[in-house]
């Protein structure tokens, strides 16, 4: 049975603008991804105000992006739509046994798909809410129109729009991953826009970001997630306990895309979770690697879009986490938790060693 969730927020005044944001960013009749770089200057002039301002030559900036400037306004438009739904409350229903879906999920995906089709007519789309179009084409967008639906439905203010672009050359086998070449994660409540393109760095609202430089798990803040289905014992509860005891803390925000973005910008040192999907991880994985972090499975193997185990770290604590996962999976006794005095001694010794 559907239910209506109400929130004590007055809806904002409707936005009045001459045309949708995505049309302000790019002319769908002229923009093509294969056009030469000079055309990007036109996009950038139109994208001023969205975190894409040219800052001159030399160091790579977000103004060097090829795909993101035209796609960012679409993410912002979808985020504004989610914000409206969130403030007035929406009906929720179930897809399957336990997964929630709302009118906002579907409306956001519809908006994104329609706008992407005008700006990038030759790109395929693979969306969480069922969109499957042009999947044999060279470029494919993985979109999560509302990552954090359970949070959204309960009024918990952590959710986002996630869009990752995969390049799939004709020589690629269907079961093989292409390269994620562009990423956008937009948090509409905080107006935080995370963007990346392969080889060009990662950015938050146009400013460069980097994974943290915290070297030890014991000094780290990490995050995880749990599935909606709770029909059996989940081994992650045991991992949660061990990592809680061996870190500064473990957070569970309920949005994998935001957790990955936070690893990229240094708010978290690591994130792990089971059974995610390409729309959950495509954008965030590129953000993490472009920010200097690492993406892998729990055993340290290379990350894949269809990986059932996802481990994102700042790179410095990866080996420590992989070792702990191995001990837990094998049922081995993990290293004893150090006392405060032992930890202080280890930290002092490490500091002295780095000076010598």
From TrEMBL:
GO molecular function: inositol monophosphate 1-phosphatase activity; metal ion binding
The keyword Metal-binding is assigned to this record: yes
Entry cofactors: Mg(2+)
Record keywords, A-Z: Hydrolase, Magnesium, Metal-binding
Pfam families, A to Z: Inositol_P (PF00459)
UniProt record, GO biological process: inositol metabolic process; signal transduction
InterPro entries referenced in this protein's UniProt entry, alphabetically: IMPase, Inositol_monoP_metal-BS, Inositol_monophosphatase-like
EC number annotated for this UniProt entry: 3.1.3.25
Reaction it catalyzes: a myo-inositol phosphate + H2O = myo-inositol + phosphate
Binding positions (Mg(2+)): 128, 144, 146-147, 280
Family per record: Belongs to the inositol monophosphatase superfamily.
Protein name per its UniProtKB record: Inositol-1-monophosphatase
Organism from which the protein derives: Silvibacterium dinghuense
Organism placement in taxonomy: Bacteria, Pseudomonadati, Acidobacteriota, Terriglobia, Terriglobales
């Amino acid at each position: 049975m559907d239910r209506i969730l109400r929130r004590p927020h007055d809806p904002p005044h409707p936005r009045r603008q001459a045309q949708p944001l995505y049309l302000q960013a790019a002319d769908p009749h002229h923009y093509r991804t294969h056009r030469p770089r000079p055309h990007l200057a036109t996009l950038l002039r139109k994208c001023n105000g969205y975190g894409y301002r040219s800052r001159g030559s030399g160091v790579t900036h977000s103004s060097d992006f090829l795909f993101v400037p035209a796609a960012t306004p679409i993410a912002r438009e979808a985020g504004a739509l989610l914000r409206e739904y969130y403030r007035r409350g929406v009906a929720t229903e179930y897809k399957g046994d336990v997964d929630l879906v709302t009118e906002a999920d579907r409306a956001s995906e519809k908006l994104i798909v329609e706008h992407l089709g005008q700006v990038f007519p030759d790109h395929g789309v693979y969306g969480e809410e069922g969109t499957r179009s042009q999947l044999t084409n060279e470029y494919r967008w993985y979109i999560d129109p509302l990552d954090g639906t359970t949070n959204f439905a309960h009024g918990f203010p952590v959710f986002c729009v996630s869009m990752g672009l995969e390049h799939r050359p004709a020589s690629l086998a269907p079961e093989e991953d292409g390269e994620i070449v562009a990423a956008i994660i937009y948090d509409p409540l905080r107006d935080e826009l995370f963007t990346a393109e392969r080889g060009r760095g990662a950015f938050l609202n146009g400013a460069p970001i980097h994974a943290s430089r915290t070297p030890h798990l014991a000094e780290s803040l990490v995050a995880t997630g749990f599935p909606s289905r709770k029909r059996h014992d989940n081994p992650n509860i045991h991992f949660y306990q061990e990592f809680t005891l061996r870190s500064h803390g473990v957070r569970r925000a309920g949005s994998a895309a935001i957790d990955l973005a936070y690893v990229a910008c240094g708010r978290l040192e690591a994130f792990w979770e089971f059974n995610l999907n390409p729309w959950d991880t495509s954008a965030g994985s590129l953000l993490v690697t472009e920010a200097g972090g690492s993406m892998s499975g729990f055993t340290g193997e290379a990350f894949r879009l269809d990986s059932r185990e996802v481990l994102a770290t700042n790179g410095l604590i990866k080996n420590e986490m992989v070792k702990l996962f191995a001990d837990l999976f094998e049922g081995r006794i993990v290293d004893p938790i150090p006392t405060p005095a032992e930890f202080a001694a280890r930290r002092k010794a490490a500091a002295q060693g780095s000076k010598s």
